Amino acid sequence: MTDATLSPSTSTAQAAIAADASSITIRRLGANEAAACAEALAEVLIDCVQGGASVSFMWPLPHDKALAFWCGVADGVARNERVLLVAEDAEGIIVGTVQLITAMPDNQPHRADVAKMLVHRKARRQGVAQRLMAAVDDAARDAGKTVLVLDTVTGGDAERLYERAGWQRVGVVPDYALMPDGAFCGTTFFCKRV
Ligand SMILES: CC(C)(COP(=O)(O)OP(=O)(O)OC[C@H]1O[C@@H](n2cnc3c(N)ncnc32)[C@H](O)[C@@H]1OP(=O)(O)O)[C@@H](O)C(=O)NCCC(=O)NCCS
Q1: Ligand 1: centre distance to CA 156 (Å)
Q2: What residues make up the domain containing 40?
Q3: How do residues 1-48 score in pLDDT, each as one tens digit?
């Protein structure tokens, strides 16, 4: 799909996300598509933070801040520093996303980080995240990466997701981050060989 064929992702459309996993498509966005999809990705991010996800942002998360984050991600895609994957429903509306950060120091060329696994609340519990994790493994192999690392809030839903996907729990750093409401939370680090 090219930039020109991307479906619009408006708030109205986002509100109409279908609860049908069979119609979900996972694909990798190029830099221009990433920039074009920043608005839709911002909606997913805002929904997740509003829902209490500890993913670098506090609540309330201003729309401009969320949009600026995704524009920065698009810049990173353009520089080949990260891979951006999205899950789209049958209408082409983005309902989930994850990133593979490939830009690493000179002594870690084989490593990548997985970050910002986000699924809109209206599309959860259908296996969207599981499919995104499988796709990120494939993207890592394509990029020649063999060691992956990620972190997530301790005790959150994502821990089960990562363990199901074959990730190894490394350990917990207490009080590593804040929840969107300001409460401290621990962070669990995971790694995986692909
Ligand atoms: C964590 C997160 C990404 C999971 O997304 P998801 O698409 O709902 O994940 P999945 O559908 O693959 O799995 C979620 C659950 O649904 C279940 N499930 C999957 N497909 C299902 C189906 N067809 N029917 C019923 N249940 C299903 C899974 O077994 C899993 O069960 P669990 O709660 O016992 O672990 C999502 O909750 C989210 O975005 N949270 C906020 C952001 C966040 O915390 N991200 C992690 C940052 S590191």
Answers
A1: 10
A2: 3-193
A3: 333 332 333 344 444 444 566 799 999 999 999 999 999 999 999 999
Which residues, at least 6 apart from 70, have a Cβ–Cβ distance to it below 8 Å? 34, 37, 38, 39, 41, 42, 45
Phi-psi region of 92 (alpha: psi -120 to 50; beta: other; left: phi over 0): left
Tokens of 54: 């500890």
List the residue whose alpha carbon is closest to atom 44 of ligand 1.
53
What pLDDT digit, counting tens, does each position of 103-143 carry?
999 999 999 999 999 999 999 999 999 999 999 999 999 99
Q: Name residue 3's amino acid.
A: D
Distance 33 CA to ligand 1 centre (A): 26
Task: Find where tokens 């221009």 sit.
Answer: 32
| Atom 36 of ligand 1, residue of closest alpha carbon | 119
Helices (runs of H) and strands (runs of E) counted in the chain? 6, 7
Which protein residue's CA is at the shortest distance from atom 18 of ligand 1? 125
Domain count, the chain: 1
Quick check: CB of 97 below 6 Å from ligand 1?
no
